[in-house]
Amino acid sequence: MAKLYFQYSTMNAGKSTLLLQAAHNYRERGMETYLITAQFDNRAGEGRIASRIGIGERADTFGENEDLFAKTQARLEKSQVACIFIDEAQFLSKAQVWQLARVVDDLGVPVMAYGLRLDFQGNLFEGSAALLALADEMREVRTICHCGRKATMVVRKAEDGTVLTDGAQVEIGGNERYVSLCRRHWREETGDLRSPAPRP
C-alpha cells in the first residue's frame, strides 16, 4: 500500500544522499523512479539533486504554485513509476503537500519527501509543518552538533561569520551560510540563554 513518507533533519545530515541511494535501490531492481526538487534551489545546477559527498542526479523541478498532482499524472501518462522522491520538501506549500497526499491515496504511488524541519529562527517551514501533519510515516535523519549532541537546529551566518537572527525564511546556501547545532548551542549562538520569566 502506498504511503507518504517524510524524512527530516537539520542541515548537512545527508538527506540528499539517502534520497539518491533509495532511488538507486529501486532502479537496481528494475523499477522506475521520479525525482523532483525545488526549482529555485540551483546550487547543484538547474534540476539536479546532489549530495555533499559528490553523487548527483538529474531531477524534475517544482515551482511555487505548481500543481504536483497534475504534474505527477502527466508523468505517469509517459510511463509508470514505482516511487516519487521529493528533495528540499520544506519548500513545498501546504497545498502541494495535500496534492502529494492525493498522489498516494488516489494514484497509489508512494511519495518519499526529504527536507528540513526548522528554519534558522527555529520555526517550522510551511511544507515541513504540513508533512508532519499528513505523512503516514516520518523519520528523523540525525546529525551532530560540534559538542557531540544531536543537532536539531541551524543558525544562519553572515559573510563575516556573525550569526543572523533576522531575515527572510528562505535563503539558499550551504556550509558557508548554515551551521547545525543542538538546541543549547543554537540558543547560545542566537543570544537566547535567558531564564524563563517566573509565572505570576
From TrEMBL:
Binding site for substrate: 170-173, 178
One of the GO BP terms on file: DNA biosynthetic process
Active site, per annotation: 88
Gene3D superfamilies tied to this protein: 3.30.60.20, P-loop containing nucleotide triphosphate hydrolases
A single GO molecular function term of this UniProt record: thymidine kinase activity
Domain of life of the native organism: Bacteria
Subcellular location: Cytoplasm
PANTHER family in UniProt: THYMIDINE KINASE, THYMIDINE KINASE, CYTOSOLIC
Assembly mode: Homotetramer.
Family per similarity comment: Belongs to the thymidine kinase family.
Official protein name in the record: Thymidine kinase
Native source organism of the sequence: Pacificibacter maritimus
